[in-house]
């Protein structure tokens, strides 16, 4: 799940993650994303901190997730322009990436985390990730 109010960046992240084999849902609104993840928890969340004014911001989402017995195991990856890594990690973020960064960095961090955690859900790994060539 990607929670990002900048539609251009959200599309970039979505396609990078899809190219890496992930199924991706996208939300511009923190509130709508939180409602969805309560009914259908994702394997991982990529979220911005600064979301639309008046919305549930990334800090609030992180606090709610980590305070919920049902959702606190979902790894959260912060993707933001705010350089507040310590705060993000202390609130429970698995990793904290400060923009700008290479989109491939995000998919590698998520893949590593899910494989390390022994995630049992379906993770589609494209042949290119294994170094295999189509032919």
From TrEMBL:
Keyword terms: Kinase, Phosphoprotein, Transferase
Gene3D superfamilies attached to this UniProt entry: 3.40.50.2300
GO terms classed as biological process: phosphorelay signal transduction system
Record-linked CDD domains: REC_OmpR
Domain (Response regulatory): residue spans on this chain: 1-114
Coiled coil regions in record: none
Single GO molecular function: kinase activity
SUPFAM superfamilies xrefs: CheY-like (SSF52172)
Pfam families per record: Response_reg
Name the UniProt record assigns to this protein: Two-component sensor histidine kinase/response regulator
Organism: Peribacillus simplex
């Amino acid at each position: 799940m990607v929670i990002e109010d900048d539609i251009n960046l959200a599309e970039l992240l979505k396609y990078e993650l899809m190219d890496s084999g992930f199924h991706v849902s996208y939300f511009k609104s923190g509130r709508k994303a939180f409602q969805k993840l309560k009914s259908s928890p994702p394997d991982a969340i990529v979220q911005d901190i600064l979301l639309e004014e008046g919305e549930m911001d990334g800090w609030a989402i992180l606090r709610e997730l980590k305070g919920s017995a049902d959702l606190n195991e979902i790894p959260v990856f912060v993707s933001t322009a705010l350089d507040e890594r310590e705060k993000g990690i202390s609130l429970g973020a698995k990793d904290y990436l400060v923009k700008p960064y290479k989109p491939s960095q995000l998919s590698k961090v998520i893949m590593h985390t899910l494989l390390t955690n022994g995630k049992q859900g379906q993770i589609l790994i494209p042949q290119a990730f294994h170094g295999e060539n189509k032919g």
